Amino acid sequence: MLAELASARWGTSAPAEGPALLREWAELARQWRSGMPEARDAPHVGDERLSARELEVLEHMAAGQSNRLIARALDLSPHTVKRHVARILDRLDLSSRGEAAAWYAKNLAGRTSGAA
Asked: Considering the domain 52-107 in this protein, what is its CATH number?
């Protein structure tokens, strides 16, 4: 079923990242069924625990940027970035920015747009 959804023509009916995420999930499911180890060990890419904006903030955090720099880069208020950081730590069950950076490096590095 994921393969069917992933190959459907969504046009403007779905957010831009939706069909790409469906294709990725369909590929992971295919790999899982075939017993490929990379599928079993794969993180929850874009995982429902984090919003797209939180993933952007996490990417900048992993690059060592302060809340103020992240706010400037993403055109957000520093308070909004602070709230995103708190939600990221909570949703990933982490206790520090350093742990968040390590989680990002292990699970998502190279899969996102490239902060800096």
From this structure: 1.10.10.10
